[in-house]
Predict the structure.
Amino acid sequence: MLCFAVAENGASTREITLAGAYVVGSDGVPLRADVELKEAHLICQKRAEGPAGLAILWPVPGCGYLLLETSRLLERDKPYNLPLELVRGRLMRINQKREDWGLFDFGGFQPVAAEIDRARDLFVAAIKEDDAASQFRIAEKALQLAVVAGERLSHFHADIFLTRRKQSHAFSRRTIGCTVDPTSTSDAYRQHLKDGFDFAHLPIPWRLLEPKQQEYNWRLFDSWVEWLTRNRVPVHAGPLVAFNEAQLPDWLAMYETDFETVRNMIFDHVRRVVERYGSYVLQWEVISGVHLDNMFNFTFEQLMEVTRVSTALVKQLAPRAHAIINLTAPWGEYYARNQRTIPPLLYADMALQSGVTFDAFGLQFNFGPAADGMYVRDMFQISSALDLFAKLGKPLHITGVQVPSDTTVARTDTGGDGPTLAGGTWHQPWNEDIQAEWLRRFVEIALSKPFVETVSWQSLADHSRQEVPHGGLLRADLAPKAAYRQLLTLRSELLGTPQKAAGEPGAS
């Protein structure tokens, strides 16, 4: 059992949420555990031996409401001071990344190093403090400094390597893309896509393509492929296989206990789509998120077989196109709550070891809603996660990234106000300016990594079916948000071309 004190004087006066909280083991894999709040203490009853840490949403003044992790701790009778352990965890990871990135003696690093030192000194002062209330206050100030220092460390590292990539002309006109809504076909929508992005990602949900068995809705997708090809917008498409309700047709549920039949239907579906569009699509997102969403409750071996069969078929039918295996919820916190799922790194590693034929991994970073995989992390955590997946030895594509531009969900069908986006915030409550700043920082960090080849925003415009409400770069009336204009500026900087105003003919 791990126990954490979460209040200064033995009585909790702050609002503590356990939404998103989970326990993580020494190997970084989430653990099954019961986490509960009893007065001023957080009790973690874990079901595995050995050191473990706690990840929890925690408010950090000026930095946001972030899902942060403690260091790995041994069980003991005396409660740990939660803010103090969050500082310890952040400083430990900062020192690790500082060494990994070789920044100890790097020119111009002194101001960042001074911030890290100030956070460390306050952390030491908190450890030495005997008064519990004073220790909490000092620890929380140290945590604020440590989170700021971590983000600035990430920005410093990104600036260096992004500059090197730009100087070497590493960025082509196929670097930044966006996922389109297939049902949005207005001229204004398509013009904003053409003006703002290097490529388009066209989803082809099985649910939408074949709503009734053997009745196909090709017209919608044909129209998009024809327009994109005619306007010379490179096409990425998929996922072809995904086991969640938004992707699968309802009629497929009648076969859920028959793996052989479902596998054969998946094979036929993949073949049908790739044969129709294979000559137009440069990159196929073949399979996505099956390590997390698994409506059929397939076994690990069955999931790997579906992965292997699907990717092999795509490479056979479209050998010149890139085949992507897409990973969602990259921290894998869902595994702490559902042991029938697979941690993302384990699934990726098994795909490599099983001889699956594919070209790259995709990663998704969607934040804002209160759901596993979407609780807000800061830029230091994102940069560190990208480095972790780089160790797989395959190129990475950010196939979906999104944050909201507002903190509330629109009114529901039943009336009344919708719920708040309670998955955390970054620096301030979400608004259009914060979304734009977040986008710039994320793209700079992602594309500073030499192994990241493309970044694709998840939604071009706001619509009711979005996974992240208000996550589009255009409002529902297609008026550009600050983030859309920010993206135009970023593309111009990366490619070294003059920027044209949004909406100007030929803007790109």
The longest strand covers residues 52-60. The first helix runs from residue 82 to 100.
